Amino acid sequence: MIRITLTVTSLLIGISPVLVSAEEDWQRCHRADVKALKVFTVGEASLYRENCNAADLLAPPLKLAFRYFRDVPGDAFGKAAMHFLEKNLDESRFERLEPELATFNQYYQDVGDGDQYTLTYDDGALTLALNGKALTKQSGDDFAHAYLTIWFGPDPYSPAMKESLLGQR
What we know:
Layout: H1 2-13, E1 27-36, E2 40-49, E3 62-68, H2 74-88, H3 91-105, E4 116-122, E5 125-130, E6 133-139, H4 141-152, H5 159-165
Antiparallel strand pairs: 1-2, 2-3, 3-4, 4-5, 5-6
Helix pairs in contact: 1-2, 2-3, 2-4
């Protein structure tokens, strides 16, 4: 029961990860533990920017990275993403973006201890990568803003993680 709960919760938290290579000039602005059941640390999330002093930390370019400490099945990420997207987007926006969201979510793969997903929002597109390898890219600022509501919307996966990633705690 605990393993199932941890797996489901991990899905909800780790939808986006990031690997930042040495060639890039990204700064880690803030980090947060990814918690299951508000108690068990199952990963770490980090927000990266070229300049952490930006007035709007969510304005592009940015990277959101998730490093995992546990195994998580790939399909769990997409299910969790859709759950939080429905909670954070109004019905008409969700319905309009649903085909692109579903396609994007199909690229999630199983992860294990040490794996890292990265979401990079730059040049009007959102790119999903696993361990530094790009898996998919979706154009559109509206899509990127919508997808980021999973962690930064009015009803995010974890309010504490949102506050930590934005440097508010």
